[in-house]
Design goal:
This protein is mainly alpha-helical and about 100 residues long. The chain has helices at about 40-45, 55-70, 80-85, and strands spanning about 5, 25. A two-stranded antiparallel ribbon has the order 1-2.
């Protein structure tokens, strides 16, 4: 549904979806999040990240740990520190 800027209407997302150097510079054009927004909900979230710097760092750390865990062999076991950093409860099955 992407469109060049001159074809966008009121209420359509103005987030650029092609590089500025592209022969045809296109914009999202999905319905905007609300009347006073220039962006759809998805692009507003990208543009206006409301998380604190601490939360962004924590999220980035969890994502990096998860990516690393995905590269491990399927039969690998993960220690409690890794699991707690991923937010996974480490209660053993014996205690349950």
């Amino acid at each position: 549904m992407s469109k060049p800027i001159h074809l966008l209407r009121r209420g359509q997302c103005r987030f650029a979806v092609t590089p500025h150097s592209a022969p045809s510079h296109l914009f999202c054009a999905e319905p905007v999040e609300h009347e006073k927004s220039s962006y759809c909900a998805h692009h507003a979230e990208i543009c206006f990240d409301r998380r604190s710097a601490e939360q962004r760092r924590a999220d980035a750390e969890r994502a990096a740990i998860a990516r690393e865990a995905m590269r491990k062999p399927k039969d690998a076991t993960y220690g409690p520190l890794l699991l707690s950093r991923l937010g996974i409860d480490t209660v053993s099955e014996d205690a349950a």
